[in-house]
Write a structure and sequence with these properties.
The chain has one domain (3-151): ph1033 like domains (ph1033 like fold, Roll), CATH 3.10.590.10. It is 23% helix and 30% strand. It has 4 helices and 8 strands, in the order E-H-E-H-E-E-E-E-E-H-E-H. It has a 6-stranded mixed beta sheet with strand order 2-7-4-3-1-8. The chain has a two-stranded antiparallel ribbon with strand order 5-6. A hairpin with a 5-residue loop joins strand 3 and strand 4.
Length: 152
Amino acid sequence: MKYWLMKNEVSDYCIDDLAKDKSTAWTGVRNYQARNFMRDEMAPGDLGIFYHSNAEPSGAAGILRIQGPAIADETQFDKKSKYFDAKATKEKPRWFCQVVKFRSKFKRVVSIQEMRDNKACKNMLILRPGNRLSITPLSKQEFEVICKMSEE
């Protein structure tokens, strides 16, 4: 099993939306490395931290489960979508997504600052200067530490 941190702007879709919907396609990712994580490395049963970005505070809000395998991101074909990609075709999609399922909401959001202050999280990609990836791998220890911090 692998572990992931998956960021989404809280104003677009948040953990409460996922709890209500039960599952959703994680669409709109337009970074090749993040796409490759979803397409090539995520597997059914992997767990992820749902991270609220551009929130007060930004941070870890809950847990989701990867349903996998990756599927074509339908927003790339929708001319009305801000994620439309004119070079993508149904026969040769460029962008992929994962269907994720709600697992649980944290009792409280674990802020990015709390993660920075915790030595067990020091190697997390999200904490590296200049990192803009919306999806990053986590170690099992990092995943468990974030979950534990959410209970404090």
